[in-house]
Design brief:
The chain contains 9 helices and 15 strands. It is α/β, with parallel strands linked by helices and 348 residues long.
């Protein structure tokens, strides 16, 4: 049992009133983290030399081995631990674990150089006595505004809890990446690859400068391109990329972006092997094509070996798989959390 879960069990023993421990989770109560993207936004085409219209293009052969040296990825777990009868009704309390790892490549081997993790309870805090949790040293994250509590169904509360866990993980990844960027010297040669978008990360930088970091998104629920442009993307062979564009989500992002097909096989989904790449707006317009081709060629090198048996192997870069495996080996299992619940039930 982790020190955090020990604090929670002691807390529940001291305050058992109205607590209903969850030993069996219904399929209605499963906590699936929401996708990082969703909806439809827009894009502004970025000019490339001799290319005036949107299109797809083969990636030239790399003139050097991949120069990516660092990789950031994270994991998260969410479990409905208990629910409690309050004046506002039944309120779910979710146990959430998030962890982020920074891996460094040295002599062709990947080594973890920084691991950050957090255990916490996720709940509609306005329905509880927040001071009690604080006195017991229990980290909590609020999942609902006070005005939402009375009108939010139990199942929706669970979705909001899972979304809050995902947001805390994103914030942790953001902080680790930002600190890495700030630690780099202007004349350095290290490159960082982040799992997901880096648009928010770039807007957080205190000053614009050469930033050797890119983001790789595996999810495609958000549409940025007109349907006729996206049709070209979905028809790309392996080793091709799309034209470069600037995503617009309310405002024009501080990144250039393009789609890249890492691999393909007949009969697959149109998004098989497809990722969306982001890089900072740090180059002159005439250099955009050169950078997009170079970074794409490096990413294609990062697909070997395959990330099997992960079901996302077609889009999951091997260094990200190694990072996730390392984080999972350190994470408390669901059995550990269930053991904590059983210890509470024996005592109360």
């Amino acid at each position: 049992m982790t020190p955090f879960l020990r604090k929670v069990t002691e807390f529940l023993r001291q305050y058992p009133e109205g607590v209903k421990l969850v030993r069996r989770v219904s399929t209605e109560d499963e906590l699936e983290p929401p996708d990082e993207e969703g909806g439809f936004e827009g894009a502004m085409l970025v000019a490339e030399p001799n290319r005036k219209e949107f299109g797809t293009f083969p990636i030239p052969s790399a003139d050097s081995a991949t120069q990516f040296t660092h990789f950031i990825d994270g994991i998260q777990h969410s479990h409905l631990m208990y629910y409690q009868q309050t004046e506002q009704g039944f309120m779910p309390v979710v146990y959430g674990y998030v962890s982020v790892g920074l891996l460094e490549r040295r002599e062709r081997q990947l080594h973890p150089v920084r691991i950050e993790s957090e255990e916490a309870l996720y709940l509609p805090l306005k329905a509880f006595d927040a001071a009690r949790f604080k006195r017991h040293g229990i980290t909590v994250h609020d999942t609902l505004e006070e005005r939402e509590i009375a009108d939010t169904p139990f199942s929706t509360m669970l979705v909001r809890a899972a979304a809050t866990v995902a947001r805390v993980r994103d914030q942790l990844e953001h902080r680790v990446a930002l600190e890495w960027i700030e630690s780099q010297s202007p004349d350095g040669s290290d490159w960082l690859v982040v799992d997901g978008s880096i648009a928010d990360l770039m807007s957080s930088l205190k000053q614009r400068r050469l930033t050797r970091v890119i983001g790789v998104s595996k999810s495609h629920r958000t549409g940025y391109l007109p349907l006729n442009w996206m049709a070209q993307v979905l028809s790309m062979p392996a080793g091709y990329r799309s034209s470069v564009f600037r995503p617009q989500r309310g405002k024009v992002a501080d990144v250039y972006s393009w789609y890249l097909r890492l691999r393909w096989r007949e009969g697959a989904s149109p998004t098989y092997g497809l990722v969306r790449v982001e890089m900072p707006v740090m180059t002159e317009p005439e250099e955009t094509q050169e950078w997009a081709d170079r970074l794409s060629a490096w990413l294609l090198q990062e697909t070997s070996p395959l990330s099997l048996p992960d079901p996302r192997y077609d889009r999951l870069l091997y260094p990200f798989r190694m990072c996730e495996q390392h984080l999972r080996s350190r994470a408390p299992s669901e059995a550990v959390m269930r053991t904590a619940i059983e210890r509470v039930s024996i005592a109360v």
